[in-house]
Amino acid sequence: MLSGESAAGAYPELAVKIMSKICIEAESSLDYGAIFKEMIRCTPLPMSPLESLASSAVRTANKAHAKLIVVLTRGGTTAKLVAKYRPAVPILSVVVPVLTTDSFDWSISDETPARHSLVYRGLIPILAEGSAKATDSESTEVILEASLKSAVAKGLCKPGDAVVALHRIGAASVIKICLVK
Question: Torsions phi, psi of 141, nearest 5?
């Protein structure tokens, strides 16, 4: 939309600043609660388990007046489904690396899921810091703690804010409300 003015126009910085103000004003007038209710009404039933978790995370964020939704994801699908329900708060998509082996060769997933989520509304992708903890639940907690610190540093939330976290521990999916320290 701005490529002509910002690439070859006389006032590219001013054009971007004004368009930013227009976008902020337009988004502030949206009724996110009504949008969410309409999305739920139009979603075919039965929902898939992942779709149900995503909509529940948004509903929880709305009810708890959370300032942020944190999604730990490997491929980005869960975070994209949360974004589908247009929450009024940003979604921190924490891409957790996957380590795989085939006897002799070890490989780790790259940042592709984080890059792909840049085009979705409300998603702010970051790469998870690794954890050498022994169990899945311990490493999840370490990654979640580091993600909340990163969110505070980015100005997405502040100490004392409620944050909704969506992640897996083993085969179970978990939605929880965390208070930022």
Answer: -65, -40
Arithmetic mean of pLDDT over the chain: 85
User: What pLDDT shows up at residue 70?
Assistant: 96
Q: Between 49-64 and 32-42, two packed helices, what is the crossing angle to 10 degrees?
A: 160
CATH class of 47-179: alpha beta
Q: SS3 letters for 97-132? A: CCEEEECCEEEECCCHHHHHHHHCCCEEEEECCCCC
Query: Is 79 a residue whose pLDDT tops 90?
Result: yes
Domain ranges of the chain: 47-179
**pLDDT score recorded for residue 75:** 84
> Whole-model pTM?
0.81
Rounded CA-CA distance 73/82 in Å is: 11
